[in-house]
Amino acid sequence: MDNVLAKEYYGNTVEHYLIALAIIIGSMIFIRLFRKRMLNQIKKWTQNTETKLDDYLISGIEKFGLPILNFVAIYVGLSYLVLPEKVNKIIGTAFTVVFIFYLVRMISSMIRLTLEAFIGRQEGGLEKLKQINGIMLLINGVIWLLGLLLLFDNLGYNVTTIIAGLGIGGIAIALAAQNILGDLFNYFVIFFDRPFEIGDFITVDDKKGTVEYIGIKTTRLKSITGEQLVFSNSDLTNSRIHNFKRMEQRRVVFSLGVIYQTPPQLLEKIPTLLKGIVEAQPGVTFDRAHFQKFGASSLDYEVVYFVGTSDYNQYMDLQQKINMEIFKVFEQEGIDFAYPTQSIIFTRQPALTK
């Protein structure tokens, strides 16, 4: 048996190969036991704590930390053997790449979970979560860039030279892409300042629509006529935006006119009639009704009331009911609506005498 263990292959004895294999297998078994016993117990304990940070940490260790430990076990086992310099270099490079890959993914995952928890606690957080992909795209870009720099540093490259090159290239890119960077900055303004969110109905100048998508460069609206409207983020932050979804109540003003032949007694009665009609509608707060002015072909009244909803369809349903009631009541009272008319008066000129 000792003779078998002492036999040498490729610079290592059979005993050395067995020890290396035992290190790898034993370490992996220990990692599996740690995951089933200790890590599950720690996970149950963290679920009872108030903070979510420890939950995210344990989740990151389970998803990314344990695979790293498996590669560490393989690396330690192979390190026990005497291998050629090229093989050792390949193994070291492979381990470095795998380690940094999982480390970057773990950091990215924890940042995303932390952002989701932070945003989810805010008002309207569910809508803002739909926009998180754009921010994570930028964060992941920065994390992977730092990870690559760390990898190059461990592989023996001069990172200072790389950073200097990136700095010069970054200045050139910034000068060439000022508009894109402006839209990118304004994306963060929209995300954190929240002038509007996905699902809001907004008006930008003479364009109206519902926000469908907020990207790192453009924001897209679905117009009321069906087509898609695309705005750059810079255009939106530099424009005056009317956000109708934030409207707590709608102020409604409408006018109507009656004919000049209406008796004064009925003219005085009309504001009271209008007030009763408006106040009879549910969810409506009456403000005023006045004989406003003498029009070109009518005596004009103005009515103002408030609707406790921002929904346009509900507002139109109420206005329709009010209009129908006004029509019925005016017919009962004998009040005639005015419409544009013109009277032409002919006068006879006296005959000229010679």
Structure description:
This protein is α+β, with helices and mostly antiparallel strands and 354 residues long. It has three domains: 2-175, no CATH class; 195-246, SH3 type barrels; 250-333, 2-Layer Sandwich (Alpha-Beta Plaits). The protein contains eleven helices and ten strands. The protein has helices at 2-6, 14-47, 53-79, 85-120, 125-128, 132-154, 159-176, 178-193, 233-237, 264-279, 312-333, and strands spanning 8-9, 12-13, 201-204, 207-214, 218-223, 228-232, 241-243, 250-258, 284-294, 299-307. A hairpin with a 4-residue loop joins strand 9 and strand 10 (299-307). Helix 2 (14-47) runs antiparallel to helix 3 (53-79). The longest helix has 36 residues, at 85-120. The protein is elongated. The model has no long low-confidence stretch (mean pLDDT 79).
Shape: elongated
Q: How does the helix and strand content classify structurally?
A: alpha+beta
Give the strand line-up of the largest sheet.
Answer: 6-5-4-3-7
Count the helices. How many? 11
| Helical content class | 55-70%
- Mean pLDDT across all amino acids: 79
Portion of residues in beta strands equals 15-25%
Low-confidence sequence ranges: none
Key traits:
354 residues; SH3 type barrels; 3 domains; five-stranded antiparallel beta sheet; three-stranded antiparallel beta sheet
